[in-house]
Amino acid sequence: MKAPLPADEPARLLALRRYEILDTEPEAVFDDFTGLASQICGTPIALISLIDEQRQWLKSSLGLEGRETPRDQAFCAHAILHPEVLEVRDALRDARFASNPAVTGGPKIRFYAGAPLITPDGHALGTLCVIDRTPRELTREQTAALQALSRQVVAQLELRHHLRVLQLHAAERVQVEAHRKVSDTAIKAVSQGVLIAGADRMLLSANRAFTAITGFSEAEIVGHNCKFLQGSLTDPQTVAAMRAAQNNGVDFAGEILNYRKDGTPFWNELTISPVHDEEGRLTHFIGVTRDITARKEAARELENLHRELLGVSRQAGMAEVATTVLHNVGNVLNSVNVSAALAADRIRKTAIEDVGRVAAMLQEHADDLPGFFARDPRAARIPAFLASLAGHLASEREAVLKEFGSLTANIDHIKQIVAMQQNYARVAGVVEVVPPAELIEDALRLNAGSMERHGIELVREFAEVPPIAVEKHKVIQVLVNLIRNAKYACDEGGRADKRIWLRIGHNGSDGVTIAVADNGVGIPAENLTRIFEHGFTTRRDGHGWGLHSGALASRELGGSLRAASDGPGCGATFTLELPLEPPAKLS
Predict the structure, then answer these.
(1) Which is deepest, 194, 239, 385, 496, by most CB within 10 Å?
(2) Strands (E), 90-192
(3) Which residues contact 320 (CB under 8 A, 6 or more apart)?
(4) Angstrom distance (rounded) from CA 272 to CA 229
(5) Coil/strand/helix, residue 100
(6) How far is CA 328 from each of CA 181, 220, 425, 480, rounded to the nearest angstrom?
């Protein structure tokens, strides 16, 4: 019969593994226990067995071959269910074991007595058992002796376990000490300054790098806190944040202006980490310092260069807009020249000379006009001539008036373009609240007439978005360039249905997008990563400033400019992302 599992089976198995005894080699100390048990109980077989999930494993075996048997066949699997000795006087008469293969065959077990091996925390790991091939019964003294020996087996297991733990702790201490020596050596050698302070924040040690950075020797700083590094320009808010982190036992990281021993300031990149013991008590602080003065100075120089570059790019961007304006004014002036030439040509071709000849003829016969009209056949044609002349002059007048109307409209157009450019020049640097659609329409007006001349259809896809607070001239600078680039892309694409989409959409809850898309020549994938680089262009007459200055302007506005294209012949989309409100620095 298969034995049921003990109620504490999971914990029992954990305890068994804690002793690390399974599958170890035979040992004389355990063989002594089985020898004594065999002699005391007068049995030919004595075992120290341990029960794991699937098997009975024998640490010591006297009188029986093999080191393990299936757990389902183990008498000991039943014995661990009882705190006292399990005694089976005749296995053939016990329903639990009568059909057991170890009874009907193999060793032919008839008698079994097993004392459980119970750990100090109450788990039965296995048994110290004695076995005979004939029925029998233990005396009271033998049973007591078997139990005593089982306790000694457990004591031996405990002794081995504690010895192993002590050995591990000793090894760990040796390893910790070795690591400490290595760490001390490493701390002394690293290029960053390292400070160690107690829980009271008084310095205990410093490495060579710290003394090189600050000019203070280790002897000068031990027993002091780090206030000696502070000076008149040290930020008190950073100091307060550092102290708050220490008070709360958490890490601190920041940059602070400190002072060397000679009084010169330096920028210190500082991290402070608390150290806690196993019980969570704060024991030390470890500070790591790095002199970043050179990096700060380089960053300041870079910022100055960046400002200069922004100024140059802004001028280049305004020049881009001005170039577009001049180009469009030039186109309108061409129309003015054409209209003026047509008007002059029509005036030259009027029938003024014919009128003069008729006037001379009438002047010649002024003394006898009735006779002239009665006798001269030329006079009969004068009324018809005058009627025809009146119609002709009326037609000429309409044509000339039309040309002068075109001249007036074109001149007004030039005035509007120039006025718009002057207006944007005046408001440079001023933040205004404006609908995004108005910005697009202004950019289109600055590209006046070019879309019609190039046969490009404009498609407006404007979502309902709130007005945005921006520097209008910067947005116009970007949009004028994007629209002009889209026009060139459509021309170079060679399609008959040239089209540009102007889109306005939401960018999350606090921004908008303005996109300019075309179905033109497209952008190769290898160029997408370089398209905003200064000087990069794919046009023969391009200079590589437009998109670069547009990207810089978009960043100044707190937004971004990105490009997308599926490749040559697939068009391109440029998207300007802008916040609803300008960055704090800009506003």
Answers:
(1) 194
(2) 111-118, 124-132
(3) 477, 480, 481, 545, 546, 549
(4) 15
(5) coil
(6) 78, 75, 17, 12
Cα–Cα distances (Å) from 9 to 15, 52, 65, in that order, read 10, 9, 28
Phi, psi of 428, rounded to the nearest 5 degrees:
-60, 130
CATH 3.30.565.10, domain 428-579, yes or no: yes
Q: Over 90: is that where the pLDDT of 427 sits?
A: no
Is there a shared CATH topology between the 9-166 domain and the 190-291 domain?
yes
Would you say 498 and 489 are in contact if contact means Cβ atoms under 8 Å apart?
no
pTM exceeding 0.70 = no
Pinpoint the alpha helices (H) of 427-545.
436-446, 450-453, 472-493, 525-528
Domain 9-166: what homologous superfamily? GAF domain (3.30.450.40)
Q: What is the DSSP string of 220-258?
A: HHTTS-GGGG--TTS-HHHHHHHHHHHHTT--EEEEEEE
Closest by CA to 538, choosing from 516, 520, 523, is 523
Q: Which fold is adopted by the domain 190-291? A: Beta-Lactamase (3.30.450)
Residues with Cβ within 8 Å of residue 520, at least 6 apart in sequence: 486, 488, 489, 490, 491, 492, 493, 495, 498, 571, 572
* pLDDT band at 76; cut points 50, 70, 90: very high
How does strand 457-462 pair with strand 499-506?
parallel
Cα–Cα nearest to 447, from 520, 542, 516: 516
pLDDT, tens digit (0-9, with 9 covering 90-100), for 351-386: 556 666 766 777 777 777 777 777 777 766 777 766
Token pair of 464 as six digits: 């309902």
* Distances, alpha carbon 500 to alpha carbons 250, 274, 518, 571, in Å: 57, 61, 4, 10
Give the C-alpha separation, 7 to 12, whole Å: 9
Cα separations in angstroms, 441 against 214, 256, 348, 490: 61, 50, 42, 20
Q: Tell me the per-residue pLDDT of 500-540, one tens digit each, with 9 for 90 and over.
A: 999 999 998 899 999 999 999 999 999 988 888 877 887 76
| Segment 218-265, tens digit of pLDDT | 899 899 988 899 999 999 999 999 999 999 989 999 999 999 999 999
